[in-house]
Write a structure and sequence with these properties.
- The protein is mostly helical.
- The chain has a single domain, classed as Arc Repressor Mutant, subunit A, CATH 1.10.10.10.
- Helices cover about 60% and strands about 5% of the residues.
- It has a two-stranded antiparallel sheet with strand order 1-2.
- Strand 1 and strand 2 form a beta hairpin.
- Helix 1 packs across helix 3 and helix 1 crosses helix 4.
- The longest helix has 25 residues.
């Protein structure tokens, strides 16, 4: 995963966001084993403690669970993953609409434009 981090937000939060996207998009499937902390830390070019903190956040949200001897896995709760996917989509849609409204484009114009795509 090649990501350019925003210096104004904690890196572990940005890693959480990237992992949520990977889970919601199906890159990591239900019950799939996740890469180990060191590998992800190398991929993200961050300290392993940062990835560990991101995993703890995902565990708190029940998106990831730890099997003591076998590593971390994506939840097997498909409804939770679908809920995550909808939440992420809503965030992106709200962000898009805010940008369009800031440009002076109203909802009807947005809809008309989207229909042409």
């Amino acid at each position: 995963m090649n990501i350019e981090f925003d210096n104004f937000r904690p890196i572990y939060i940005q890693i959480v966001e990237q992992l949520k996207i990977a889970i919601a998009s199906g890159k990591y499937q239900c019950s799939e084993k996740l890469p180990v902390v060191r590998n992800l830390a190398n991929d993200f070019k961050v300290n392993p403690n940062t990835v560990q903190r991101a995993f703890m956040e995902l565990e708190n949200e029940k998106l990831v669970y730890t099997d003591r001897t076998n590593g971390r896995y994506v939840t097997n709760d498909k409804k939770l993953i679908e809920k995550l996917k909808l939440e992420l989509a809503k965030e992106k849609i709200d962000e898009f609409l805010n940008h369009m409204h800031n440009l002076g484009i109203n909802n009807k114009e947005i809809i008309d434009y989207l229909k042409t795509k």
